[in-house]
Design goal:
The chain is an alpha+beta fold. 29% of the residues lie in helices and 20% in strands. The strands form two sheets. Strands 2-1-3-4-5 form a five-stranded antiparallel sheet, with helices on one face. Strands 6-7-9-8 form a four-stranded antiparallel sheet, with helices on one face. Strand 8 and strand 9 form a beta hairpin. Helix 1 crosses helix 3 and helix 5 runs antiparallel to helix 6. It is globular, with a radius of gyration of 18 Å. The two termini are 32 Å apart.
């Protein structure tokens, strides 16, 4: 609910029907994908208070919240949980995503000329969210799911760490310095609670760009660093 509260505070609006699953002890059920919870039901809810009051019911678990699109205002965003592996579901928690349309970043899309402005908006929103929610790590992704730590340990070849935030409260100065060395040519911004690294010119104010093939390889290096001792 923290991400939803943040989204609403910066101007997003809940639209359409919230998806939820219902059942005895539904909140205690461990799951890999929301599909494991059964067939969802839908309910019109429009305010944070309505959504939180509904979620507080013992046998209700909200799984998807639609928002008015933050980019073009014509495609819906949504807040939901990211799937994790069967191995991780009993020992870890789900990352949460705010998903929006990424088609404007494709050169053939009619909105491509506005992509830089859209990217700037995402960058600003991302910084606000990471400062308010204070996650262990977070990322801006166009194709890849952000894995939980357990899934990184299972498969450390994640491509999700190309434009990302690392919380300095959870990682040593030595590890953060090592990240800076590995990502020496990335945009690097020190925030109050961590560091933001970016390789995409869409998602950093200096328009720093690192080749996608290189950044995918580096992402796996970052993942291995996050789980190293």
């Amino acid at each position: 609910m923290e991400l939803l509260a943040c989204a609403l505070d910066i101007g997003a609006k809940v639209i359409g029907e919230v998806s939820y699953c219902e059942g005895i002890d539904i909140k205690k059920k461990r799951f890999a994908s929301i599909m494991d919870l059964g067939v969802p039901s839908y309910k019109n809810l429009s305010t944070l208070n309505e959504i939180m009051t509904f979620q507080e019911q013992e046998n209700i678990n909200i799984i998807n919240i639609p928002l008015r699109g933050i980019l073009t205002n014509c495609q819906a965003d949504f807040i939901s949980v990211i799937p994790i592996s069967e191995e991780a579901k009993n020992i870890d928690t789900h990352p949460v995503s705010w998903t929006t349309s990424g088609t404007c970043f494709e050169f053939f899309d009619p909105y491509f000329k506005k992509a830089s402005g859209f990217g700037d908006k995402i960058y600003q929103i991302f910084k606000i969210a990471t400062q308010r929610i204070d996650p262990v790590y977070a990322s801006i992704n166009t194709e890849y799911y952000l894995p939980c730590l357990t899934d990184i340990k299972i498969d450390d070849k994640s491509m999700a760490f190309q434009d990302f935030f690392i919380n300095s409260k959870y990682f040593s100065k030595e590890k953060l310095d090592e990240l800076k060395n590995v990502l020496f040519d990335y945009y690097c911004e020190t925030l109050e609670n961590g560091i933001y690294f970016s390789r995409s010119p869409f998602f950093n104010p200096e328009k720093v760009e690192v080749d996608g093939t290189i950044s995918m390889y580096r992402s796996a290096e970052v993942a291995r660093l996050l789980i190293s001792k």
